[in-house]
Design a protein that fits this description.
It is a single chain. The protein is α/β, with parallel strands linked by helices. Helix content is 38%, strand content 22%. The protein contains 10 helices and 10 strands. The strands form 2 sheets. A 6-stranded mixed sheet has the order 6-7-8-3-9-10, sandwiched between helices. The longest helix has 19 residues. It is globular. The two termini are 33 Å apart. Adenosine-5'-triphosphate binds next to helix 2. The site of adenosine-5'-triphosphate has 10 residues, from helix 2.
């Protein structure tokens, strides 16, 4: 649907490439036999199996199982402290799971010999607090990863940054520093900074929670636009209206597991789990 570059990044030996693509096909076969929640069939991009994570004695994730399809938009909701961020951060190994597997594009990224940095290049991440480099201009922020990682020449990265800034209507801020931008502008820059690498999936951890209410809309519209291009997105959010409108599937995490998941209409109109009912009664 979109113009993702599948193997555009890896200068790997031909044999390796063949192996990877064969593995992808295998995944496709597995996932094609699987029915999605809306009854259609999907092609899995991420497959999470029995993921567990504790901090000391505190068991936060107690066996998360899910599959995220290419082009799917998944919203994750749940009470504070239930492990939403821990789960999201596990997907690119910012948190290292205690047990379980995470297959991304056919590779189990929890295996020791996997080059996680290579995998991370294909996973864009956006945080609540933007995390822009304050000492760099907006344009330099966007150019940094592609040039530093050798994905693009300076000229290519500059052209890409110009294109992305134009897309979000901030061309005039190219030479400004993050401090000179509003929260909404900063977060939109953080989103396109992640897009500069042409990732295959975008992970968002409460991207609008730190924003003044009047700036939430501009960030959500950019995310919706991104969803409309077919980007695979996993979004931890408190914005229930957005989840209902944009997500293909909503997950409710409670007590370390996915306690309920459904298409948004069903999820919000007809929750089954008493904890979810209680949660929704408080947030809707
Ligand atoms: N690095 C850490 N060390 C110790 N405990 C942690 C760590 N990270 C998270 N936790 C604990 O794990 C639990 C889950 O945290 P997590 O941040 O994943 O929750 P959350 O669902 O994202 O909550 P919120 O909605 O408030 O962001 C919390 O009890 C938290 O205190
Ligand atoms: Mg969190």
């Amino acid at each position: 649907m979109n113009d993702k570059k599948k193997n555009g990044t890896a200068p790997a030996a031909p044999e390796t490439k063949t192996e990877v693509s064969e593995e992808k096909n295998e995944d496709q076969v597995i996932s094609n036999s699987r029915k999605k929640i809306d009854g259609t069939k999907g092609e899995a991009l991420i497959i999470v199996n029995d993921l567990c994570k504790s901090f000391g004695d505190h068991k936060v994730l107690r066996g998360i199982n899910t599959e995220i399809d290419k082009g799917e938009v998944v919203a994750i909701v749940g009470p504070s402290g239930c492990g939403k961020s821990t789960f999201l951060r596990s997907l690119n190994l910012l948190e290292v799971p205690d047990s379980g597997t995470i297959r991304f594009e056919g590779n189990d990224i929890t295996e020791k010999n996997v080059d996680i940095n290579k995998m991370r290049e294909k996973m864009g991440m956006v945080f609540q607090q933007f995390n822009l480099f304050p000492n760099m201009t907006i344009k330099k922020n966007i150019m940094l990863a592609p040039t530093k990682l050798g994905k693009m020449t300076k000229e290519q990265a500059s052209a890409r940054a110009d294109e992305l800034l134009k897309r979000i209507g901030l061309s005039d801020k190219a030479d400004a520093y993050p401090d000179g931008l509003s929260g909404g502008q900063k977060q939109r820059v953080a989103i396109v900074r992640a897009l500069a690498m042409r990732p295959d999936v975008m992970l968002f951890d409460e991207p609008t929670s730190a924003l003044d209410p009047e700036m939430v809309g501009e960030v959500l519209s950019l995310m919706k636009e991104l969803a409309d291009t077919g980007m695979t997105m996993v979004i931890v959010t408190h914005e229930m209206g957005f989840a209902r409108e944009v997500a293909d599937r909503v997950l409710f995490i409670n007590e370390g597991v996915i306690a309920e998941e459904n298409k948004p209409e069903e999820f919000f109109a007809n929750p089954q789990n008493p904890r979810l009912k209680d949660f929704l009664s408080k947030v809707l």
